[in-house]
Amino acid sequence: MTSTRKVLNWIGMGLFVLLGVAATIPLFLIIIDIYSKGIDAINRLGGLWHFLTSEPPSPLSKSGGVGPPLIGTLYMTALGAIGGFALGFPLGVYIGEMRREKLANAARVGVNVLVEFPTITIGLFVYAVMGLVQDDLNRYILGPVSATLKAALGNSVFYNYVSWFVGPLDSFNAYAGAAALALVMIPYVALITASAYASVAQPLREAAYGIGGREFNALFIVMRKVVSRAVLTAALIGTAKIAGETAPLLFTAFGNNYYAPFTGSTGAVSLWIYAASETPYNVQIMSAYGAAAVLLTIILILFISARIKAIHD
Amino acid sequence: MQMTKTTTAIIAAVIVIVIVAVIAMWAGGTSRTQTPTSATQAPTPTTTSPTQTVSTTQTPTQTTTTQTQTTPSVRGVLTGAGSTFIAPQLQAWSNILENATGGALAVNYQLTGSGAGISLFLNKKVDFGASDVPMPEDLYQKYKGQFVQFPAIIGSIVIAYNVPEIAYNKTGKYLNLTSEIIALIYMGNITQWCDPRIKAINPGLAAELPCKPIIAVHRSEASGTTAGFTLYLAKTVPQWNETVGWGLTVSWPIDKLGRGIGAQGNPRVAAAVLNTPYSIGYIEYAYWAVNKKEFDAKGGVAYIRNDNDGKYYFPTEESVAEGAAAALQRYAQKYGAPPAPDADWNPVSFELPNPPKGYPMLSFTYILLWKNYTAEGYPDAATRAALLREFFSWVLTEGQKPGNIVEGYIPLPSDVAKIGLEAVNSVKP
Amino acid sequence: MFFIKAYPIFAREGFAMFLQTEWDPGAQKYGVLQALVGTMLTSVVAIALAMPMAIGVAVTINEVLPSRLRTIFGSLVDLTATMPTVLFGLWGFYVLGPFLQNAVNTLAGGAVMTSPSTLFTASVLLAIMVTPYAAAVIREGYALVPKAVEEAIYGVGATRLEAVLLKLRYVISYVLGGFFLALGRAMGETVAVAMVVGGNYAHLTTNLFQSGITISSLIALQFGNARFYTYAEPALFAAALLLAIFGIAINTAAIYLIQKWQP
Q1: With an 8 Å Cβ cutoff, is B290 touching chain A?
Q2: Which of B168, B285, C23, C246 has the most CB atoms around it within 10 Å of its CB?
Q3: Hey, is the C-beta of B264 within 8 angstroms of any chain C C-beta?
Q4: Which of B3, B40, B406 sits opposite A59 (nearest CB)?
Q5: Is A106 exposed, middle or buried (0-12, 13-18, 19+ CB in 10 A)?
């Protein structure tokens, strides 16, 4: 009896490990492939600093980089992540805590459907909304704001920098891109948060409500300790997901191979990788590998530092 | 406490990212901070009277690719969208002009696909569109007279094959093919490489052709290349026209027989042919030209018979340009005049495949411009129009010269470029 | 909004387009049923492969690896979720597809899989892509099992495997959360699937080893040039709508079942 259980134990655990390893092999193959080709490409295209700051190469170029797409990706991902988390987290708490309410169930279905919506249609949705609000936004809010800023700051260098971030929006701009990314991120944050809240043991939940008194306190303050790990994962996975998105950006941020204000067409690393993968020219293909390596490195740093911080806390 | 710490960590990370972004922008972008797309900073006034724009069309002729040039009167970045095929060439043109003008003129072109490019252009989201297929007829009728379209570069479709036994490196010969044989392969009627019909037109390779099933590779997405390829077959092989027809995406008979491979984009079709022994595929000339050595090692690219003069043509710059010129002559004879920039170009693109002489599979990539940017409601219309005129008149003259053409693209014959210049000159602010 | 965009095709075809299986805009055929079947097939197969793998990853990280390696290994797995999906697609096309074709044909002893780009390739690629998401969710839950519970389990003399299974039951809400996240991802994945699915619009197939199409990849592969056909764009919006309706239906059913089963 015990020996069969032992054998079963070994077989079962072995199976788990085997499956785990099988799942990760392709992932590591891709990572290794990207780093080995990417680092080589960066060196051949003019070194790291040059690669990080210069414009993408044309087929006739000898060197080049991902400067404009990189800042676009950083800016839009940061904004998108903040937006996605700000909306996704409360939604997740609501879904996870109020499991028996009809509305919460409807929200859960909605969030699930949002995950399975092709990301290109999310981009098209934001594109359509942008088309509706752009004029009014510029006329009533952004135009006056930028005029006030200009009056306040004069034609200084500082105003020049501010005008990169604030000003009347073009049809394509970084903010539309960030909005599309936030929409993509919301369900990831919400679903992972909801699982975390749903898993809090009933006695603990009751205790929390008892101490916290008001519902709000119970939810956000007492139980956060239990679920913070999962919520951090939600934020990280969501951020990581949107950093690599291509389809939602095409009709919102549009892409840009040159340095330009965020109020107009903005580049993204993923868009450049897509563009470069459609050409036969080696210099562009190399830049795509370099771009992928840079993107992975940024996220890796973000992940590991956030994890280490969480552990120390 | 933990939660606040993690939140702080996330916020800190975000701040770091933004700082890095700003630093990177400052480091790399200082030279370009003066090239706004937005309306706010473009120095519109005084620079764009009609007389001025005449002078801008003259600047290009002096432009050389290497040295800095007297900067043009206006500055800015134009946006364009559409055709995937033309993207590398447009990017190269933009970079050359950007360098030549000291950053005063550049084009931000993104590959959305031809159809989406036309949509964005018609919705005034971009300054110009680029498409492998002319404006569709219903839309042409709707916007007739408001816009111009003209070819900017020639594309040519080649038939690549992977048959190790007859690889060019081994035999020193390329395969001969006819439209009928290609059609029959993609319809599944010719099943093996040793088919007598293939042998008959390849006496030199007849002994080596292996009796292996032919795998046919085609594009899996809607594409201008597929349209060009299927239009050629539809025009030359009645049987194909009746059963398959032509379009940007068609229902491939070979798929139903289990010998077809669908691949997305030219690079993947090229790779599928290279990786699959006994396969055949159609790709844009550029994707073969750049990887010629690899194809020669495993197979090659076919001579195609022109059904009108009966000669076999190898895809080269000359044979394709010859085909384009002949096709346009045929068009002019048929319709009494060469195509006008504001005409419907669908009949032109229909005339292109199977020309009287020259390589028979070719297509244009068209540029779409509005005639009057003010009337279309573009902000800073004068600047935009001046920049567009400057860019495209350079593209149609200097841009077509060897040093400015990317390997694998075929420059326009000068008659065709003239139509484009006429179109560009009709663009008003 | 999608309904408005899709309206022209409904006006022309009615809802019958959802029952037709041929997409050939040149011939005025805009059927999308084959794409819905493709979506169902690929996501079901992908989930069937991904869930065991995801649980395997979670168990490996929490039970087998030394604690120092957990964070790094876990972060690396999470990292793959960052990968631009186009890179997964390229890898799937250049590496996975030919590999699977060889493997399947060798195992079956004949040319069962005639193309490297098939519904099966798409399913396997999807499984690999969605595993990190499901694994991340399950892993977090797994790490949350209270020490007291763990001690109690071992206290009654359970083996490692029995303990793992008990713990997984304990964090069932995480497992379900991971399942739905992965399912949604599998149904919605666009760019990568488009690269490896083969793009067979013309006939309905339930044979995994043939090239096919899913709704998301249909949209991705056709949208770029849809403007050339009057009804192609509305038809694609209608397809997106169909996917959403389908998603609402299965999610509602699933939530109903879960709540019935887990009082």
Answers
A1: yes
A2: C23
A3: yes
A4: B406
A5: middle
Q: For chain A, how big is the Rg over CA atoms in Å?
A: 23
Chain B CB contacts of C195 below 8 Å: 264, 268
Is A9 an 8 Å CB contact of chain C? yes
Of A55, A167, A310, the CB nearest to B40: A167
- Distance between CA atoms of residues B123 and B226, nearest Å: 26
User: Position of tokens 């724009």?
Assistant: B53
**Cβ within 8 Å of A, B 257-276:** 265-267, 270
Q: Three-state DSSP class for B219?
A: strand
Cβ–Cβ contacts within 10 Å for residue C126, how many? 29
CATH code, domain with C52: 1.10.3720.10
C138 contacts C173 by C-beta, under 8 angstroms = no
Query: In chain A, how many domains are there?
Result: 1
- Give the gap in angstroms from C-alpha B12 to the nearest C-alpha of chain A: 10
Instruction: Give the number of A-B residue pairs with CB atoms closer than 8 Å.
Output: 180
Nearest of C77, A70, A38, A183 to residue B17 by alpha carbon: A70
Question: Is A215 part of a structural domain of the chain?
Answer: yes
Radius of gyration of chain C, Cα coordinates, nearest whole angstrom: 21
Selected residue of A73, A121, A132 to mutate for chain C interface (largest C Cβ count, 10 A) = A121
Chain C positions touching A26 (Cβ under 8 A) are 91, 96, 128
Contact B267/A278 with Cβ under 8 angstroms? yes
The number of folded domains in chain C is 1
Gap from B131 CA to chain C (nearest CA, Å): 9
Measured between alpha carbons, how far is A208 from A228 in angstroms, rounded to an integer?
A: 15
Residues of A in contact with B33 (CB under 8 A): 160, 164, 259
A196 occurs within a structural domain: yes
- Residue A188: give its domain's CATH number: 1.10.3720.10
Chain B residues close to A257, C-beta within 8 Å: 91, 94, 108-109
B406 token code pair: 């990317």
The verdict on residue A50 lying in a domain is: no
Rounded Cα distance, A249 and A259, in Å: 17
Domain enclosing residue C123, as ranges: 2-260
Digit-by-digit pLDDT tens for chain B (429 residues) are: 344 445 555 555 555 555 554 454 444 443 333 333 333 333 333 333 333 333 333 333 333 333 334 445 567 789 999 999 999 999 999 999 988 888 888 899 999 999 999 999 999 999 999 999 999 988 999 999 899 999 999 989 999 999 999 999 999 999 999 999 999 999 999 999 999 999 999 998 988 999 999 999 999 999 999 999 999 999 999 999 999 999 998 989 988 888 889 999 999 999 999 999 999 999 999 999 999 999 999 999 999 999 999 999 999 999 999 999 999 999 999 998 888 888 899 999 999 999 999 999 999 999 999 999 989 988 888 888 999 999 999 999 999 998 899 988 999 988 889 999 999 999 987
Residue A222 DSSP class: I
| Domain interval for residue A169 | 61-312
Task: Spell out which residues of chain B touch residue A161, defining contact as CB-CB under 8 Å.
Answer: 22
**Is the Cβ pair B88, A284 closer than 8 Å?**
yes
Q: What is each CA distance from B359 to A5, B285, B306, B312, B362, in whole angstroms?
A: 74, 12, 7, 8, 8
Which of A3, A7, A16 is best to mutate for the C interface (most C CBs within 10 A)? A16
Rg of chain B over all Cα atoms, to the nearest angstrom: 24
Q: C18 near B244, Cβ under 8 Å?
A: no
Distance, in Å, from the CA atom of C69 to the CA atom of C89, rounded to the nearest integer, reads 29
**DSSP track, B29-91:** HGGGTT---STTT---TTTT-HHHHHHHHHHHHH--SSS--PPPS--EEEEEEE-STTHHHHH
The C-alpha atoms of residue C224 and residue C234 are separated, in whole angstroms, by 13
C8 in B contact zone (CB under 8 Å): no
Q: Chains with ≥3 Cβ pairs under 8 A against C?
A: A, B
